[in-house]
Amino acid sequence: MMSLEAITFDLDDTLWDNRGVMARTETGHYAWLDEALTDWLSRRGESRGRFAERYPLAAYQAARGRLAERFPPRRGDFSWLRERALVELLEAFGLPRSAAWLWASAAMGRFHALRLDVAPHPEVEPLLEELGDRYRLGAITNGNLALHRLALCRHFRVAIAAGEIQAPKPDARPFLAALARLETAPSRALHVGDSWREDVLPALRLGMRAVWIAPDPPPGALPAGVHRLAHVRELPALLTDLT
Ligand SMILES: [Mg+2]
């Protein structure tokens, strides 16, 4: 077996548990917008009622869905969809276009701050530190995180937000881009992720090895080249076995 020289990681639900983060971020930035906008309007002596009463969270989500249908190449660029949906709703609420853009962008600032409030598993920091001495590390995420603001990302030579390059996983392009920038070949690289469809399958198709983070053992045998781990903390032991 070719020796391994690079490892790429999925982030959400691989290096941290993401369920709570998304729920808090989704409701949090919308509630912030509603509050701040109400304040601003009342200070200007305008009364239009409350934004979130006229357009509850479900209306915002529906607006994002419609935009994704209208602009298929953008369907994985969740930040773009959010900001455009906010602008549309704010204009429909009666704000001039320039104010709608300003408020949408302020709400997205709030969104990204909340989205970064992730708690990586405690083992992750020392794990990346140690692996970084032996392998070239990369990150490939479909999530809309401001990666450069995440302290953990200093361990990655390359960090790709696949939605923003309009080729979300399972598209091969973010994997190929990562491999190129890590100056390695698929046969010498391993991808680690929790999604069978978005992490394991595309890595295998390219000829990479794959580690599937899945707490429950699947029925039946896994294809050659795939290893299942219940938790990313088990990765160093597996690498010792592999090499
Ligand atoms: Mg994931």
UniProtKB/TrEMBL annotation:
Its EC number is 3.1.3.-. InterPro entries: HAD-like_hydrolase (IPR051400), HAD-like_sf (IPR036412), HAD-SF_hydro_IA (IPR006439), HAD_sf (IPR023214). GO terms for molecular function: hydrolase activity. Keywords: Hydrolase, Magnesium. The keyword Transferase does not apply. It comes from the Bacteria. Its cofactor is Mg(2+). SUPFAM superfamilies: HAD-like (SSF56784). This is HAD family hydrolase. It comes from Halomonas saccharevitans. The lineage of its organism: Bacteria, Pseudomonadati, Pseudomonadota, Gammaproteobacteria, Oceanospirillales.
